[in-house]
């Protein structure tokens, strides 16, 4: 093809395009055109998005995405949960807790007195779950929690040769409690019919955690031999444990089949933990839950409590009365009296020195005081005095915490005082009195310092109330100071003031 033919063909292709009336765009109109195009694209996008939302408005959404979409366009509020109404949730209180107490018709009359020490009519919420309905001629006490009868569990497997099938029934209390469908429940708290709860402190502990998350909260046994036979990863049922609503909702779906899968396990708490392990949730340990898997005198355990609220005590029929020369229930009632005056401070330890006399004071508030006519170290004072044995074998060790032996030397032992009375004062203060205890042995140290110490008959302790917000801070033992009397060594009374620690303050011998 000749070059002239090629040019004629090219002109034929180009000519039609030359006839299209394209606008002539000046350079100064480029910016205006860009804005118009952008506006057109945005309008198309918004119309399309609106159409999409209108088409999906009635489609089902999970609760998570409903909450997420509502919170997406709200300002974030730290440490505040946003509920569907857009208002902040109220803090956890006792009405948000549903108790499930494992009991039986055979043991309830003997153990109900422990429950009646802490149960509050029209305030606490929950049930005692019995194996059979009480006899018709038995009137259920108004001071006891209401009861329900557990469902039949004869179809479940139980292959632990040394255990009791009642473990199945008690494990299912969580499921039966959940299926009641009660409103406003954030936490399910399980315990035994001989568990003494301290509800205000339980609320304080649970309020630290987001109840919308899956939590399993409790404590281990004090005796290592129990934790080895059972699990370190388990919250012991006698000491009580708490399960948040979301975890309970997941757990009840698998619980019955799971109980059969773990038929060889001894206790209900073992079965519960094993089923929770299938969900993947781990135990959150709180040192205020006490299984009390010990034998003998619980004094050392209560006189050196961890820096944590006292939440529960268990097995009180298997240890000596917590106050000497009293019946068991009455001795617990005495401790509960102190608890009612200042829940958060109950059996919290404080200790301090009086360098002018070379004395030391260790206080377990609402329980006991120890007076040492010398200056033991802080580490010595905070360590638990081993006044008890292990649960299973009645051995001296081991325990899940450090202990120190009880000296038989009367010139090493402290002078001990037990709480005698307590009263509330103005401005949120309390004053408690502790009376010297005579163990009846007749053995007293004949050293001069000890003779002076034995002349002290009473210890008076003043303290501000330990309010719940204190436990939201990093745990620190509070400090104290011994207030010297004007009559000096001739006084039979010591006055002690508990307070928050000053900056750079420590319990250090000079």
From TrEMBL:
<keyword id="KW-0812">Transmembrane</keyword>
<keyword id="KW-0808">Transferase</keyword>
<dbReference type="Pfam" id="PF04646">
    <property type="entry name" value="DUF604"/>
</dbReference>
<feature type="transmembrane region" description="Helical">
    <location>
        <begin position="33"/>
        <end position="53"/>
    </location>
</feature>
<keyword id="KW-0472">Membrane</keyword>
<protein>
    <submittedName>
        <fullName>Transferring glycosyl group transferase</fullName>
    </submittedName>
</protein>
<dbReference type="InterPro" id="IPR006740">
    <property type="entry name" value="DUF604"/>
</dbReference>
<keyword id="KW-1133">Transmembrane helix</keyword>
<dbReference type="GO" id="GO:0008375">
    <property type="term" value="F:acetylglucosaminyltransferase activity"/>
</dbReference>
């Amino acid at each position: 093809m000749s070059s002239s033919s090629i040019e004629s063909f090219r002109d034929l292709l180009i000519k039609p395009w030359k006839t299209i009336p394209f606008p002539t765009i000046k350079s100064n109109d480029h910016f205006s055109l860009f804005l118009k195009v952008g506006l057109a694209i945005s309008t198309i996008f918004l119309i399309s998005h609106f159409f999409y939302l209108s088409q999906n408005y009635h489609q089902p959404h999970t609760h998570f995405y409903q909450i997420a979409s509502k919170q997406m366009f709200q300002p974030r509020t730290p440490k505040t949960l946003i509920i569907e109404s857009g208002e902040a949730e109220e803090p956890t209180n006792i009405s948000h807790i549903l108790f499930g107490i494992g009991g039986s018709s055979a043991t309830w009359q003997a153990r109900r007195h422990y429950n009646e020490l802490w149960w509050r009519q029209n305030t606490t919420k929950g049930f005692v779950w019995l194996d059979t309905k009480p006899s018709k001629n038995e009137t259920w006490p108004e001071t006891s929690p209401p009861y329900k009868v557990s469902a039949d569990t004869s179809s479940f497997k139980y292959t632990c040769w040394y255990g009791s099938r009642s473990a199945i029934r008690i494990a299912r209390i969580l499921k039966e409690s959940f299926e009641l469908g009660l409103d406003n429940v954030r936490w399910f708290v399980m315990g035994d019919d001989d568990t003494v709860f301290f509800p205000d402190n339980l609320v304080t502990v649970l309020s630290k955690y987001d109840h919308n998350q899956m939590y399993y909260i409790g404590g281990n046994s004090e005796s290592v031999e129990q934790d080895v036979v059972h699990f370190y990863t388990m919250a012991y049922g006698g000491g009580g444990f708490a399960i948040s609503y979301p975890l309970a909702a997941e757990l009840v779906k698998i619980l019955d089949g799971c109980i059969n899968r773990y038929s060889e396990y001894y206790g209900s708490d073992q079965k519960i933990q094993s089923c929770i392990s299938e969900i993947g949730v781990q135990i959150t340990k709180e040192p205020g839950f006490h299984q009390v898997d010990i034998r003998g005198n619980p004094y050392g355990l209560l006189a050196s409590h961890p820096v944590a609220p006292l939440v529960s005590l268990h097995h009180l029929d298997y240890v000596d009365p917590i106050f000497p020369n009293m019946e068991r229930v009455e001795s617990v009632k005495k401790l509960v009296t102190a608890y009612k005056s200042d829940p958060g401070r109950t059996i919290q330890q404080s200790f301090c020195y009086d360098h002018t006399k070379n004395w030391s004071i260790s206080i377990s508030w609402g329980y006991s005081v120890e007076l040492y006519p010398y200056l033991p170290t802080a580490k010595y004072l905070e360590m638990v005095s081993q006044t008890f044995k292990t649960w299973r074998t009645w051995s001296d060790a081991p325990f899940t915490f450090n202990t120190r032996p009880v000296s038989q030397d009367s010139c090493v032992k402290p002078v001990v005082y037990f709480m005698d009375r307590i009263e509330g004062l103005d401005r949120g203060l309390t004053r408690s009195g502790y009376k010297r205890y005579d163990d009846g042995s007749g053995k007293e140290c004949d050293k001069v310092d000890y003779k002076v110490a034995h002349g002290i008959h009473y210890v008076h302790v003043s303290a501000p109330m330990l309010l719940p917000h204190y436990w939201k801070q990093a745990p620190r033992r509070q400090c104290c100071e011994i207030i010297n009397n004007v009559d000096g060594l001739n006084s039979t009374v010591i006055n002690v003031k508990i307070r928050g620690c000053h900056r750079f303050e420590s319990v250090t011998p000079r």
